[in-house]
Amino acid sequence: MRVSRTTGRALALVVFTGAVSLPAAVPAGATTGAPEPALLADLNHDGHVTPADAQATGEEAIFLPNLDDSRRRCRVDPADLDALGAEADARLAACNDAADAVVNGEDDDADLARLRLRAMPGVSEGATGELSVDAAGADKIRVFARRDGGGFRPLLPEGGGRISAAELRQGLELGVEGRDVVRDANGWDGRVTITLTVKDGASRSVAEVRMREAPLLLQNDLQPAVEVVAGKPGRGSGTPPSVEVPEPRDWGSFSKTLRKATRQAGLADPRFISGTSRWWRDIWWQDIFEPTTASMPAPGGTRTMRILVRSGNVFTAPGQDGQLQATPRPLARLIFRDLRGPGVGVVQQFTVSRRDVITDMRNATGNVESLPPYDSHPQGRLVYGTGQVRQPDPAFVRLLTGMGQGLQQPVVLDTDWLLVGHVDETMHVVRARNQRGWTLMVADPRLAVNLLRKAKAAGDGKAQLFTGTASAEQPTVDAVLANSELMADNEKAAGHIDEQIAVMLAETKLRASELVRVPVLFHRADPDGQLMRAYTSGVPNGLSMNAHEFAAPRSARPGHQGP
């Protein structure tokens, strides 16, 4: 499942206070009597473009990556949902509000960052103006101009940036949209310099303004949920044999208890979305996208766009001719159909190549989490897992580490020992009454073993685990404790989690005594008997609904009969 969360004004605005070297308007090359143009932008971040912004030198105005679909014009052909190969995925991702040179209604209008060309009444009828963008940002933005008292029309790159003498004399309102996001920390950094050049006879003068695209910031588990989305099995025949997705069980019980949890938290019922006809067993919505927000100051408050970062999963699937094709995870195509729309966009970046299933699991967004703001990290941090043997797709990692423009520095954990390889299997951020207001819930195999020993000592050795579920295996407490191999597995898992905890304590300065430890048993689950996954409920892999309520997976405590 996946949760959307709110974001606050203060959190949005703190992003945009970095110092820069250029003032907002820099007349250059002006001769005596020549006009001095000025481009005004919202440099003081109050949501308005006014003469006061000219005093906010050294700041950058903010614009949004305009990747939503304000008029829901982007259609998804049902045939694309199960198509093999990556052509459908490229086509789906290419449609958004910035893909055309049109302002798509009032919502799209509000997504444009405003600039104002100050009126220059003294220019002659032969004067000309030209707007340009630095080479690094030339293909990253589009500029519109409100002309003839009407709506916005494209000025740059369409229109060549040309501004008439009449428009120079009257002044001009401009709107800026981002056409993409930062995809690599070593590439474009999200900044653009927009230059206005005015020529009038022999005189030439220039004004510049610097802008920055709003970074994509991962939401965190301290933000209250506003919507819960989960998968629902469809009626298809299953998955290709090369993609081993377990058949969902107990979905009726899961959906019932999830509804109960959302209602208790004061939320609307979850939105359940069925899988595609061929890929119906793949219902793991937690693993197909990670929600982020991009925000800019706007009249009346903050303008926020939600950008869903698609997972980097690529399946290897056979076509009708039996030939295997690298196919981006089909379930994730549903986010274009069911979630993209006004105020919600989707970005993706992955290498389309055949890979083994276990390695590819590292590219799911269950392996992408975040830490809330703390100390020297006012926007929080990205957390993801990797290893020496299996790593996420480098292209996917470049997107994750680049999109925040350095504001959410990554913490990297070793998940090589896990079959699925996700950081959400062992840790979850929860609120706490400590200095920073949060701590980590961590899976603790030793605690789980000790609880079983206490149950045995209390005379409950014959009690069974997993009762009331569809699990074919329902061992007794005695049987679990007598399984020496399982006990050794859990001591080994505990050692790996100790290493993860050491990294997190060093990075966050949390104390070990502040951690919330929850009982989880692990077992070896891969064909080679080396990799592990949860044997009992993966308690950390739950949902933070609000400041006080955490929806945990069903307990596996001995003799437990239901939710």
Automatic annotation (TrEMBL):
An example Gene Ontology CC term for this record: cytoplasm
TM spans (from-to): none
Protein-arginine deiminase C-terminal domain ranges (all copies): 208-534
Domain of life: Bacteria
Ranges where the record places region Disordered: 231-251
One Pfam family this sequence matches: PAD
InterPro entries: PAD, PAD_C, PAD_central_sf
Gene Ontology MF: a single term: calcium ion binding
Signal peptide region: 1-24
Keywords in alphabetical order: Signal
Protein's name according to its UniProt entry: Protein-arginine deiminase
Organism from which the protein derives: Nonomuraea pusilla
UniProt lineage: Bacteria, Bacillati, Actinomycetota, Actinomycetes, Streptosporangiales
